[in-house]
């Protein structure tokens, strides 16, 4: 770098520091101010950040500048995401670079790769037990491969999103190993309890994430001579963010990854970062102070990056994760996702209407992440409050989860219950979209056609709601549950492996063949994606309004001032002329842009069909 450029970089940093320092200080002081050496610690944190800024490449700094000039860059109608496992999608990071053309063909601009950093040697929760933030999992490649990939993706206008697993580390991470060997500094990185009674006190208010495969929230570790807090699996040790050294170390890990070219960080398990006796230890106010502090550091060093909250909580509880536009940029709309599936199971749209009506308005620039499936189960509890507000009991949730558990011969869904043997409980549901929507149980072409309509209905909702829609790997090809032998044993230990198949190369090769279900699915989805990309009404920040109507199976809403979505969540055809009359949509004013069954008559909205209409 020549002298002039270095000056510019320094000036840039000085200016950002002037803008963000006080707020960052206030945030961190509120958490750590009681420590005697706080000011020193804070000065070191800034020095470390300055160092990371100095290391940021010219290409990434140019990206930062472009993004700062258009802060809502991720909220436009062309934003489309795709989520995949590196090995299951492309073998390794180098193989992934070979798949960029495919992603571009689909119209993808945001690629979430599930964990690829060095992971625990044995069981590792699909990579969510991280052994090093500074190395790539050797079977997937190297840091050089990662940097080459991010550069190639940037060139293709695709932002790489990576998990930043900040709640815990693997029990073989160097910090955990140092703690095991008795190092006091590293023991203080974790929540350790000598006395089981202390854990019991916390447990009174704690929920269990994996009650079957990993019951409890604490694990006794012989070498530690103590119980360690393990919200998830026993080998995932929760970090103690009450310790400022933990914050500093994790912030540095984040900034280093940003310098590798990762543009979006999925803040894994964000609600769990802070613990307080007597509380559920989820979504505590301190979590938001921590996230705001991370955002502050991102603004200083890598302002082109985005933070995505992985907080699977009801949408009404999500506004704190956005703060006043000073926390996360994106959050999963899991209520919308679950409500779409629930509406399908119930053949009624009231739950969706309720969720949509109660979706909070976001501070700008911010956006929802809309999705249909992901690598985890569908958790129904996010809908509990919505059903309560509708005056319904928990039996609704039970019925919905039972519909997807694969045991009801009347259901088209071939899924499986997660973490529960009790058929009456509202357990989570596992399964690929295609299996849950009827592709797997289809007996003939007509059944397959109906399954495709359901898939287009749920994806059509994600595409039209307003947000960043993300396709889960294989859904675009109607790929079904993983039935491979290797998957069976994995799934026996953790049922979520059902929805983590290797991308089916035959389906991929057949994607342009309309005679094949995978080809039909791919083409229909792509058509919808391409249409969406030219409709400014579908940008994340365009207004959205629910349209009241009397038909229980119909969901109708308007985007912008000129686009309407009509969706039939039932197995019955609905009379289109009378629906249009009720919604005041005469043919003279509204024309059809897209419908799932292009050749259908104007007389009916077919079972599970979606329509996009535009004002003339
Ligand atoms: C997130 C991930 C999930 C993982 C958990 C623990 O919820 O999505 O797959 O098991 O975090 O890291």
Q: Could you outline the blueprint of secondary structure elements for this entry?
A:
Elements: H1 3-32, H2 38-55, H3 58-69, E1 81-84, H4 86-90, H5 93-98, H6 100-106, E2 110-113, H7 143-155, E3 159-165, E4 168-170, H8 174-180, H9 184-187, E5 192-193, H10 196-203, E6 218-221, E7 226-229, E8 236-238, H11 244-259, E9 264-268, H12 285-301, E10 306-309, H13 319-322, E11 330-332, H14 334-346, H15 350-357, E12 367-371, H16 384-389, H17 395-403, E13 416-418, E14 428-430, H18 433-437, H19 445-465, E15 468-472, H20 485-493, H21 505-509, H22 517-533, E16 544-546, E17 554-559, E18 563-568, E19 574-575, H23 576-582, E20 590-595, E21 604-605, E22 610-615
Parallel strand pairs: 1-2, 1-15, 2-3, 3-9, 9-10, 10-11, 11-12, 12-15
Antiparallel strand pairs: 4-8, 5-7, 6-7, 13-14, 16-17, 17-18, 18-22, 19-21, 20-22
Helix pairs in contact: 1-2, 1-12, 2-11, 14-15, 14-17, 14-19, 19-22
Bound molecules: alpha-D-glucopyranose.
Model description:
The protein is of the alpha/beta class and 616 residues long. Helices cover 40% and strands 15% of the residues. The strands form 6 sheets. Strands 1-2-3-9-10-11-12-15 form an 8-stranded parallel β-barrel. It has a 5-stranded antiparallel sheet with strand order 16-17-18-22-20, with helices on one face. Strands 5-7-6 form a 3-stranded antiparallel sheet. Helix 1 packs antiparallel against helix 2, helix 14 packs antiparallel against helix 19 and helix 19 packs parallel to helix 22 (517-533). The longest helix has 30 residues, at 3-32. The radius of gyration is 24 Å and the shape is globular. The chain starts with a helix and ends with a strand. Bound molecules: alpha-D-glucopyranose. Alpha-D-glucopyranose binds next to loops.
């Amino acid at each position: 770098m020549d002298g002039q450029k270095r000056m510019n970089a320094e000036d840039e940093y000085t200016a950002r520091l002037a803008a963000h320092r006080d707020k960052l200080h206030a945030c961190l002081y509120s958490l750590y101010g009681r420590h005697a050496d706080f000011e020193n610690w804070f000065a070191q944190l800034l020095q470390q950040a300055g160092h990371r800024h100095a290391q940021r490449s010219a290409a990434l700094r140019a990206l930062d500048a472009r993004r700062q000039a258009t802060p809502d860059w991720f909220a436009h109608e062309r934003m489309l995401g795709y989520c995949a496992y590196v090995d299951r999608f492309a073998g390794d990071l180098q193989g992934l670079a070979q798949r960029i053309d495919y992603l571009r063909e689909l119209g993808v601009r945001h690629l979430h790769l599930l964990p690829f950093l060095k992971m625990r040697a044995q069981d590792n929760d699909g990579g969510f037990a991280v052994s090093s933030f500074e190395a790539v999992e050797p079977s997937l490649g190297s840091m050089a491969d990662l940097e080459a990939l991010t550069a190639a993706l940037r060139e293709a206008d695709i932002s790489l999103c990576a998990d930043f697993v900040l709640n815990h580390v693997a029990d073989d991470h160097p910090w955990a190993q140092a703690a095991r060997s008795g190092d006091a500094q590293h023991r203080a990185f974790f929540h350790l309890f000598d006395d089981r009674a202390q854990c019991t006190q916390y447990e009174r208010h704690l929920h269990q994430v994996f009650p079957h495969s990993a019951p409890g929230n604490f694990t006794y570790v012989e070498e530690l001579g103590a119980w360690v807090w393990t919200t998830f699996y026993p080998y995932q040790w929760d970090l103690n963010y009450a310790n400022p050294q933990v914050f500093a170390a994790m912030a540095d890990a984040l900034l280093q990854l940003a310098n590798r070219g990762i543009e979006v960080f999925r803040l894994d398990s964000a609600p769990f970062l802070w613990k307080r006796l007597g509380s559920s230890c989820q979504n505590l106010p301190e979590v938001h102070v921590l996230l705001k502090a991370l955002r502050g550091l991102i603004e200083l060093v890598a302002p082109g990056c985005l933070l995505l909250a992985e907080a699977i909580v009801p949408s009404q509880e999500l506004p704190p994760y956005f703060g006043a536009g000073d926390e996360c940029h994106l959050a999963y709309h899991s209520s919308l996702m679950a409500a779409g599936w629930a509406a399908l199971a119930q053949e009624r749209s009231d739950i969706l209407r309720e969720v949509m009506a109660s979706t909070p308005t976001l501070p700008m620039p911010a956006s929802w992440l809309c999705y249909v499936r992901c690598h985890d189960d569908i958790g129904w509890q996010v809908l509990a409050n919505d059903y309560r507000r509708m005056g319904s009991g928990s039996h609704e949730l039970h019925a919905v989860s039972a519909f997807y558990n694969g045991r009801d011969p009347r259901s088209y869904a071939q899924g499986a219950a997660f973490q529960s043997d009790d058929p009456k409980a509202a357990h989570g549901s596992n399964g690929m979209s295609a299996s849950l929507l009827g592709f797997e149980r289809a007996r003939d072409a007509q059944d397959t056609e109906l399954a495709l309509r359901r898939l287009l209905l749920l994806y059509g909702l994600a595409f039209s709601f307003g947000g960043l829609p993300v396709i889960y790997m294989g859904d675009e090809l109607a790929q079904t549950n993983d039935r491979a032998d290797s998957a069976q044993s994995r799934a026996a230990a953790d049922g979520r492996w059902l929805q983590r198949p290797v991308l089916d190369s035959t389906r991929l090769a057949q994607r342009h063949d309309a005679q094949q279900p995978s080809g039909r699915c791919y083409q229909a989805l792509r058509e919808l994606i391409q249409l969406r990309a030219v409709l400014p009404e579908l940008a994340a920040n365009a207004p959205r309004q629910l349209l009241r109507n009397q038909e229980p199976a119909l969901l109708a809403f308007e985007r912008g001032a000129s686009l309407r979505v009509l969706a039939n969540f039932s197995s019955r055809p609905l009379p289109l002329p009378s629906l249009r009359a009720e919604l005041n949509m005469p043919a003279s004013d509204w024309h059809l842009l897209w419908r799932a069954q292009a050749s259908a008559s104007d007389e009916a909205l077919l079972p599970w069909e979606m329509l996009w209409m535009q004002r003339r």
